[in-house]
Amino acid sequence: MTADQPPFRDPGLSRGARVDDLLARLTLDEKTAMLHQFAPAVERLGVAAFRTGQEALHGVAWMGPATVFPQAVGLGATWNEELVRRVGEAVSTEARALRGRDERVGLNVWAPTVNLLRNPLWGRNEEGYAEDPGLTSAIAVAYTRGLRGDHPDFWRTAPVLKHWLAHNNETDRSTTSSSVGPRVLHEYDLLAFRAAVQAGAVAGVMPAYNLVNGRPNHLSPYLRDQLRTWTERELLVCSDAGAPSNLTDSEAYFDTHEEATAASLRAGVDSFTDHGTDSSVMTGRVRGALARGLIDESDIDTAVRRQLTVRFSLGEFDPGLDPYAGIGTDDGWNTPGHRALAREAAEQAVVLLKNDGLLPLAPGGRIAVVGLLADECKLDWYSGTLIHRSTPLDGVRERFGADRVTFAEGVDRVRLRTGTGEWIRVPEPTGDAADGAPERAGALDPALLAGRTDLPPLTSTGDPAAASELALIDWGGGLLTLRAPDCRYLSVAEDGRVRASADQPGGWVVQESFRLEPHDRGHLLLHLGTGRYVTVAADGLKVAENGEPFEIVVVERGEEAVARAAADADVVVVVAGNDPHLAGRETEDRETLALPDHQDRLWRAALAANPRTALVLTSSYPYAVPDAHAALPALVWTAHGGQAAGGALAAVLAGDVSPAGRLPQTWYAHDSDPAGLLDYDIIGSRQTYLYFDGAPLYPFGHGLSYTSFGYDALEVDLPDGPEGAAARARITVTNTGTRPADEVVQLYVREADPRVRVPHRRLVGHARLPLAPGRSRTVELTVPTAALGHYDVAHGEWTVPGGRYVFEAAASSADIRRAAELTLPRIEPRARPALTKGLSAVDYDEQSGTAIVDLTKERGDAVSADAAAGHLVFRDCDFGDGASAAEIRVSGAGDVLLALPGGTEVASFEIPAGDGGPYDYTTLRAAVRLSGVRDLHVTLRGSVRLARLEFLA
């Protein structure tokens, strides 16, 4: 360091001292400007501009061409942390390389998403890893370590976990509240975040749009009370896009934006993502909050210090020392190694759901590859632009020979006729482009769809010209896309014109989606992106408030083409699934688990024509397909597998790779199996494999192989004695078949004699083992004894009750191969000290018809009725020698009833309506006669918010 350089430039000083020095040199205005996502440069100090946020869920996204790996749920299906760590390493290396070419590429990456896949109807199911917090944590730790790099001082990229907290619905996501009791909070939702933070590879988190227990996540007290206690490192909390404004606008939680901004800053939000690149709105709100005394400069300093810590870690102020600074596009982007890794990850993500001997496919036969996704390589909202593209059809042709493979997409081919008898047509491609390919019809204005009479006449048979034929695809729920003969999708531009101009459906608002609405003279065509109807104008098709009816003339049903191809083949591969931009995506949950009717018809037609039919589901989420499971000899699932998806699938179908992916979430058989989308009480409503009492279609952890595996006896012990901090489990697995393959050994544990509701079994360890035929490997897994416990709501602490625990070595959560018992010293149960310490309403043992709400805007919980009447049960309440009075802390209007089991009334309280609002609590007292240890039942009616119950001798 030269004499005229400030201390923050001195690498010999501690990082904390350097951050403090730089912070002290910044003016209040400069610090305030840094609170926005797009922080400007401070030129007088030589500090560059910086932005938080670079999407990197399964590759560098939104910045043009990049290696596209399988979707996150597909990475979860690999159950392979070592692989996922390498994927994270590749993604962060490409981020560094691309940044050298484009300064817009950020190094503060917003990934991974660790929200648990509690309900498979969630529109963003593709972004999570698993429904199980242990598996999610393991994959998240691996991915963040890859993103961070292994240098002790400098980070390749700085990962931010999404989305804090209990976020698993898109429906009204900025206004709905997730009701999460203490047990679900500590045993489920927090666990998904904690391990990655404690592993030291996480730079921060992003709060979710939703509320938890009535309070917006951007004000979450758990940021302070939980997250920041898990590490000594300064963690950066970045708001989700637009969420700061939501606090006042959609949520109406505060009257003014200044109050909302101040409250979120005090709660721990350090960077505001709002109003795009225009930072003036948010910085103006910060200044307004300062002027009103809602915050002071120290609140701003705290947030800026956390940001600067991340920037120092990324090497911004030590370019000569940063080991990752030299990564360039030649050695860090689209490398042979990254391409091979994308293929490996896609292969490992394939899950064989069912196989009656059809797979692997025998060589030499004729294969029909059919279905709406047979020749597709779909991207999602968080993908980069494909550099390479491999569809299932591409992969099968390459692997088995193009001359042995036939194809039928299975689209419905239709024509649209106006009320005046004119056909809707797309002009034929004309001209030559610079690369020699014909110019795409509809790609440019004025190539419009139009109902016109000056187009080529009908053919001699009376059929319309080919230009009038459209491919119609129904993606479920009546959501349609329409494709022109030149393979471009009908889309609506800002001028309201309908053109055949899109390569694929996509965009934040999808302009390629339509719905047909019945009309007495045919159908109206509703454009979903604008909410307007297609109508015919003099110069082409447009959208307007009022549409005109069209007659839909079906030229050919998709199943007819599929049946022809299937009948002429030795084996059929039907590829079905979803387009990640349609019918279940960010901002939109699914309404059903069922496969769309269009695709259901296709597999049935293929099977009717050829019994040797396999169904490949390529999707972002599970489907309920009990009929397909019962009728078809083989079913396969894979998430959208990125750039190498087709080749990877073909390798599995051919048997070059034995499938070893395992389901990261339960596949239910019926829509009625999972609880409601907004019901976050997984214990009370029996959700996920942990608590589900029914029979799933495919259980968590399920996946078949082309070989077989034998499990020797499971051994479990406590190497450090009964008071040891961890148990040790050992199991030897042998490949007893004839093919090399991976086996995923899963270790579960269940409490043999539980006193409270606990999971049927809980995943506590796993290992993916490659095994040659006849070879064996011994797996040793360490299980912290704390993982055998649960959160004790009666005493507000984590407890391991002891007694008998059954460890299970398994091939899935429903395929237990070996079991062994372990006994821990039993802790005698303690009654709730109801008389001496009272009861917090939220610490119930059981509930029905209630919701947890915010006690105050800042912190604390209360309970309200979410139905005509809500019920709470508090087990084993100790009233000592006798309680003569009960007091309740309550707000709102209605009544509260205390009773014993069987309905014997103890006390009742009538709460009159007041003028103070929901946070205006009052204390009411009633006489009671309670003694000894008893269960207590509490009933809530009306708009009451119950905070606490106290008992007096």
UniProtKB/TrEMBL annotation:
One Gene Ontology term of the molecular function aspect: carbohydrate binding
Keywords: Hydrolase, Signal
Cellulose binding type IV domain span: 832-953
Annotated Fibronectin type III-like domain residues: 743-813
GO biological process: arabinan catabolic process; xylan catabolic process
Family listed: Belongs to the glycosyl hydrolase 3 family.
Name recorded for this polypeptide: Sugar hydrolase
Species of origin: Streptomyces corynorhini
